């Protein structure tokens, strides 16, 4: 994985643990020792660590978290296309809504931010649009209104999609 991707992911740790600052040699060691882990997997490992530990992670903590998420310590075997853990997390959010009626807007936004950090802004935008649609739909339902509004439905019905 390119050093720039690892730096972007490690930057999240600097924000999560503001008291800890890595020196350049330490940062280079983190990059060297984590470069075999696919970016989405490392990003997931960092998220898991931030959610479960008050301490800045050692390299071994991140490798162990990545191994736990992947179910495999041989990260080279996960290469392209690899497991897209962020896409799996998005699917989980959608399943929570469609199967359980559960929506956590903060989780949707957090995942969209993660997608942006790993250079997938188009996917982040798509995820935010889905979250907005769900929230608008739920708000309309609470008000006893149709969603989308009847006027929009009529406009869509009049589109000529034979061209």
Q: Which blocks of ≥5 consecutive residues have pLDDT under 50? A: none
Spell out the helices and strands N to C.
HHHHHHHH
CA-CA gap between termini:
44 Å
Secondary-structure-based class equals mainly alpha
The whole-angstrom Rg is 20 Å
Mean pLDDT: 82
> Strand content of the residues, in percent?
under 5%
The major pleated sheet works out as:
none
Helix proportion range: 55-70%
What's the structural domain tally? 2
- Helix segment tally: 8
The coarse overall form would be elongated
Number of strands: 0
Break the fold down into its secondary structure elements and pairings.
Blueprint: H1 3-16, H2 24-34, H3 39-52, H4 59-70, H5 85-100, H6 105-117, H7 121-143, H8 150-158
Helix pairs in contact: 1-3, 3-4, 5-6, 6-7
Describe the overall structure.
With 163 residues, the chain is mainly alpha-helical. The chain folds into two domains: 3-78; 85-158, no CATH class. It is built from eight helices and no strands. It has helices spanning 3-16, 24-34, 39-52, 59-70, 85-100, 105-117, 121-143, 150-158. Helix 5 runs antiparallel to helix 6 (105-117). It is elongated, with a radius of gyration of 20 Å. The model has no long low-confidence stretch (mean pLDDT 82).
Summarize this, please?
The chain folds into two domains: about 80 residues; about 70 residues, no CATH class.
Features:
8 helices, 163 residues, 2 domains, mainly alpha
């Amino acid at each position: 994985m390119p050093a720039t991707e690892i730096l972007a992911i490690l930057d999240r740790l600097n924000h999560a643990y503001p008291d800890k600052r890595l020196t350049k040699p330490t940062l280079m060691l983190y990059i060297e020792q984590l470069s075999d882990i696919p970016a989405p997997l490392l990003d997931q490992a960092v998220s898991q660590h931030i959610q479960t530990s008050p301490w800045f992670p050692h390299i071994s903590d991140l490798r162990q978290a990545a191994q736990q998420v992947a179910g495999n310590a041989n990260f080279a075997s996960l290469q392209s296309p690899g497991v897209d853990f962020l896409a799996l997390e998005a699917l989980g959010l959608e399943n929570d809504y469609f199967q359980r009626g559960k929506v956590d807007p903060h989780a949707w936004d957090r995942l969209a931010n993660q997608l942006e950090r790993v250079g997938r802004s188009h996917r982040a935008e798509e995820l935010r649009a889905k979250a907005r649609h769900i929230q608008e739909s739920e708000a309309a339902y609470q008000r006893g209104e149709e969603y989308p509004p009847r006027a929009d439905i009529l406009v869509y019905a009049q589109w000529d999609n034979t061209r």
